[in-house]
């Protein structure tokens, strides 16, 4: 299977052929950030998929925050542009877990660790964020862990 870097590169070519400006701009931006990460000191000109995923998640978060700012400033056309790019990035990320799936995973972790209250939150959060990396937002995980440990 192709790496995320290769998939993005192929997506750029396809977007150019299809004259899809939004997709092209989003993918070129992602590739620029990927190349910066590949050439960073210590990266040895490689970009593992887990790092590429973290970069895409960061781009999604930044895009959503920008769209929120534009919406508050009554600049809907700019917000829509940001969200269109966010949707392109999301295509390369795993499907997010539902709250029910997150809660089930957290319950399993609580049983595994023998957590008995808020004093064990750090232990549970550490395992939960590692297990659900890229599939769940940290704030959602934290809220569910708090609810179950309370």
From TrEMBL:
Segments passing through the bilayer: none
Signal sequence segment: none
A Pfam match: YqeY
GO MF assignments: carbon-nitrogen ligase activity, with glutamine as amido-N-donor
InterPro entries in the record: Asn/Gln_tRNA_amidoTrase-B-like (IPR003789), GatB_Yqey_C_2 (IPR023168), YqeY/Aim41 (IPR019004), YqeY/Aim41_N (IPR042184)
Identification of the protein by name: GatB/YqeY domain-containing protein
Organism of origin: Hallella multisaccharivorax DSM 17128
């Amino acid at each position: 299977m192709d790496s995320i870097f290769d998939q993005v590169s192929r997506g750029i070519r396809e977007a150019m052929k299809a004259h899809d400006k939004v997709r092209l701009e989003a993918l070129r931006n992602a590739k620029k950030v990927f190349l910066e990460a590949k050439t960073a000191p210590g990266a040895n000109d490689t970009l593992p998929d887990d790092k590429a995923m973290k970069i895409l998640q960061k781009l999604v978060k930044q895009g959503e925050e920008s769209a929120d700012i534009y919406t508050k400033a009554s600049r809907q056309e700019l917000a829509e542009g940001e969200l269109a790019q966010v949707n392109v990035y999301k295509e390369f990320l795993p499907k997010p877990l539902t709250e029910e799936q997150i809660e089930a995973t957290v319950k399993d972790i609580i049983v595994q660790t023998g957590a008995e209250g808020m004093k064990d939150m750090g232990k549970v959060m550490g395992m939960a964020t590692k297990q659900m990396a890229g599939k769940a937002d940290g704030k959602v995980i934290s809220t569910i862990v708090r609810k179950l440990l309370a």
